[in-house]
Predict the structure.
Amino acid sequence: MYRLINVIDQYTHQITGQNLERLTDNAFIPFDPANTDYQTFKREVSEGVELQDPDGNVMTQEEVDAFLRTIP
Amino acid sequence: MSGNLKLASAGGGSVTVTTPSTASNLTLTLPSATGTVATIAGTETLTNKTLVASGSNTVEATSGPTSTQLAGIRNKIINGAMMIDQRNAGASVTPTADQTYTVDRWQMRLTQSSKFSVQQNAGSVTPPAGFTKYLGITSLSSYSVGASDLFSIEQAIEGLNCSDLAWGTASAATVTLSFWVRSSLTGTFGGSLLNSALNRSYPFSYSISSANTWTQISVTIAGDTSGTWLTTNGAGILVTFGLGVGSSSSGTAGSWAGAQYWSATGATSVVGTNGATWYVTGVQLEKGATATPFENRLYGTELALCQRYYWSGANGWAGVFNTASTARFSGSYPVEMRSAPTITAIAAPTALNPTVSESQTGSQTTGFSAPASGGSIGTTSASKIQFGGFSSGADGRPSVLTNSPLAFSSEL
């Protein structure tokens, strides 16, 4: 299970990006295609493992697939 | 007597011993039955000559550096002597998940959990001469391996570190894998070299004829001229030792295959015998057709090589409280990592406020996060993190970590 976390600029309060948390061990995974945990994340969520949006809502597979197309 | 000495042969030819132009006295000692073939007395230099040893003979220098010593870093395996164990510090682990790391750089592949215990120097046997550590694996059951089962111990070599082998091209270089192994079982064991796509593999086999005895194994492998072998920061070559590999993942030893073979067909299954042991150390993969002596690198060098893939710490990272209970810390890594790492909290943080000499402990889990601001959590050289669970911070108060609560992994 994974969760996206918004990165919010502390001065403008605008969302400037996202971080990725692996909920099984509370690890933070970078959006780096060379990182094997990131490779595993992409494979697992494309196969149906749960991904939550920054509000904690479980994303549908369509939403997950759309999200995967936006990341490296 | 001066000039040349010509010896007539019964075959009609002759052998001429030519006297060099020299002011010193040189001696040519003819061979005895089992002794030296030739000795050059005094100072002499061999120029543009190649000394060739035939059969089981060797060519060696009695003093001075050898070509082996001058070859630089030869071993493409990191932590081949099993010295570095950052994760477990010598403690035993029982892997439950596939690709669990044991001693540094060595991960266990498994399709069934909890079938082995793994420990640096398990069983406390005497390592081979010249070594102080080994990786010890003990079977915890007598599991019958199914066709699709896989149990192995493996190191993935980064592509950047084996690009010189030119695998996947017509110039593919020959390599030699050597290691010391000891098992409570005897028989034929197996392993394999694979590419990252797992569609090229070279199963190999080796024999242990005497139980509970260290045996040195050497396997020479002609480089693969086919397939794709990464030369990037991805996995270049996977070196794996089988501990119980099913028939669908085993192939004929001694040849390249366009398949995912993790071991040789018919290899002994360590997982099949409860209490069976399999120990290994001195693992070396080097370019060339000859196994040279194990390359002993300095401990600090080996540790730094391991830290490119995993390290734990963050002691001394500076930060600042942004609320009463949360503080953000940042710092750089001991070495450039292979990729941006996965960051995990492995202990509750202890933070010192240097202005009031107050130390307080936060939470390992509550509030551990990427900073809510400031962009990406980390790069290949530095990162920032936020810990929560502190009790008496204050916005803007400086702080510094005084323990090692974080683990950074960019393993292959």
The radius of gyration of chain B is 28 Å.
